[in-house]
Amino acid sequence: MRNLTLLTDLYEITMGQGYFNEGRHEKLAVFDVFFRPNKLITYSVAAGMEQVADYLENLHFTEDDIAYLRSLGCFSEEYLAYLAGLRFTGDVTSVEEGEMVFPYEPILTVKAPMIQAQLVETAILTFVNHQTLIATKAAKIVDAAGGGVMEFGLRRAQGADAGIYGARAAMIGGCVGTSNVYAGKLFSVPVSGTMAHSWVMDFENELEAFRAYARSFPDNCLLLVDTYDTLRSGVPNAIQVFKELRQRGYEGKGIRLDSGDLAYLSKRARKMLDEAGFENAIICASGDLDEYSIASLKEQGAKIDSWGVGTKLITSADLPALGGVYKLAAVFEGDKEIPKIKLSDTTEKITNPGEKEVYRIYDRATGKAIADYIVRAGEHIDESAPLELFHPVETWKRMTIENFTARNLRSPLIAGGKRTRTSEPLSTYSERFKKEKSRFWEEYTRRDMPHIYKVDLSPALFALKADMVCRGKGK
Q1: Is residue 224 helix, strand or coil?
Q2: Which of 264, 340, 390, 470 has the fewest CB atoms within 10 Å, i.e. the most exposed one?
Q3: In this predicted model, what pLDDT tens digit does every residue of 418-443 receive, in sequence order?
Q4: Domains annotated on the chain, with CATH
């Protein structure tokens, strides 16, 4: 496992020197990870928690790390000696991977000595921001396609790690496979892929290229048919090879379209395959697809069975950053909590102070989610009594609910520096997301102009926040 302790911004380490000099480095602190609204974010799919746990368990500065920091000329020898023995000893509470999450709610909380909690900020945001972003993009693409989406983005990813962990996140979001062989091995997920245009171009003609491929892979023969002319040569040549395979006791798997008018070509290709007796041959489409183009193709009646999606998935092309932040919520003096708040002239940038928990409120009769409810740590939700929900800014917007259930969205990830959750297959996380999404009305998750899902504060948390805002207590 790589040691990523130096995967941080310099200011995290310089602040550490300051905390150390001021004798504040061992003071217990609480930081929340959350993201703010964006017009393209209707919901998000949490991912990256396992990488957070791996990173924190392995946190330590090597001799080389210390030597490099010494070479910068910024740090005292006493501080460097302290860093040389530093390990993460704190606690982390988070949602599970595959959980649906919404703006403002703390999806991960670090409670640790101040210097530890500060040093890990950048890396935690790196893991959670990236994978949550890609898992969410994948979920929206899969929703548009109705399933059958393969992640094909490695060659367009912004670096190797983005390709590897982007593939991981895409599987959590509902993709059924990846072209990334390394990710397939690392995460034990299905890999898929057959040929490129260069294979076809290397042979004297397209038919010979298809025959050669069929000789190597007779029981998994999926042919790329758009190298020259999809309907005049590609599909007819594929049909010819499928007939030859059938005479040998095999069935051709299908064809892939990678360019052109995919709606028109898929409908014509489907008709040609069916008339030739290959009704079970699938049609796979690829080529700069996303949820919008896939939805359009389906509306046009495209006859496509599976989708290979690359660039616009692995880069989340229309929203290249989630925008998650890491904000101080509280410090402790002994056992006494001192809530902290960041103030701003922009309402959306005012943070929620203190230690918190997040509950999802469901209608007991329908099982559908009503709202997420952020409370102060230790608050009890009485499911036998009516619960009043109100907008945290436009407080006149209120509703009272009865006959509900409440589920705590978060659980310990790290306790005393050691992980408390076992690693699970990515299929477990994707099934968690699929199951939870089914508990939301489609008005909240639809692609175009969705309703805004409610994320409300308890009266106690609202009162604390309002008091700190009024008194200007950002200190």
Answers
A1: strand
A2: 470
A3: 999 999 999 999 999 999 999 999 99
A4: 10-134+320-470 (3.20.140.10), 135-314 (3.20.20.70)
